[in-house]
Amino acid sequence: MSLNKVMLIGRLGRDPEVRYMPSGEAVCNFSLATSESWNDKKSGNRVERTEWHNISMYGRLAEIAGQYLKKGGQVYIEGRIQSRKYTDKQGMERTAYDIVANEMKMLGSKNDNSHSDNADGWDDGAYSSHSYAAPKAEVADAPPPSAPQKRSAPVAPTVPVEDIDEDIPF
Predict the structure, then answer these.
(1) Alpha-carbon distance 53 to 57, whole Å?
(2) Comparing 1 with 155, which gets the higher pLDDT?
(3) 21 found inside a domain
(4) pLDDT at position 150 over 60
(5) How high is the pLDDT of residue 13?
(6) Tell me, what's the pLDDT at 111?
(7) What's the subunit arrangement here (predicted)?
(8) What is the pTM (predicted TM-score) of this model?
(9) Which helix (H) or strand (E) holds 65?
């Protein structure tokens, strides 16, 4: 048994870049900064270290990230680490580590991850959070879903809510 899982909360270092593969599937890339701080034992000064992570997303999650995330916005990312080898300009072989995200949650205020207009899908509260996940692969050996059960009592109709923004796909 093994596990390859990463959970990060950080700020985007640049606007997401969305491209499309020949198959039509969307791919989104951006950098994410995570920081930690502590007091230096010798000097007593506050020290901060920032790590930069290369984030990749695919499919509908990539399209959503490209539409709603912006540089400086705070986001929670969940996914896995994937390594890739490349040759640098000096001819040295290097290894880069990317995070392939399969879940995203936008954090912070609406201005962190929004367009300049108010049709961006964020509510008007000081804190907003929207979560998106890539579809899970279906298991071939899974049993078929059971038949729907009839309800014995009628369900009261729901009252429409006026402040729901229909632009957010979830």
Answers:
(1) 13
(2) 1
(3) yes
(4) no
(5) 96
(6) 61
(7) Homotetramer.
(8) 0.65
(9) helix 59-68
Are 110 and 123 in contact, with CB atoms under 8 Å apart? yes
Overall number of domains in the chain: 1
Stronger pLDDT, 20 or 161, i.e. the higher one: 20
Residue whose pair of structure tokens reads 């009261």 in the numeric block: 156
Q: How many CA atoms lie within 13 A of 73 on its CB side?
A: 30
Q: Which pair of structure tokens corresponds to residue 110?
A: 């609406």
Whether residue 59 lies inside any domain: the answer is yes
Q: Which domain holds residue 72?
A: 6-106
How many alpha carbons lie under 13 Å from residue 89 in its C-beta half-sphere? 0
| Whole-number average pLDDT of the chain | 78
Q: Is residue 84 part of a domain?
A: yes
Task: Tell which phi-psi region holds residue 25, choosing left (phi > 0), alpha (psi between -120 and 50) or beta.
Answer: beta
For residues 152 and 146, what is the distance between their CA atoms, to the nearest angstrom? Answer: 18
Interacting residues of 11 by C-beta distance below 8 A, sequence separation 6+: 32, 33, 72, 73, 74, 75
Is position 119 within any domain?
no
143: tokens are 């049993």
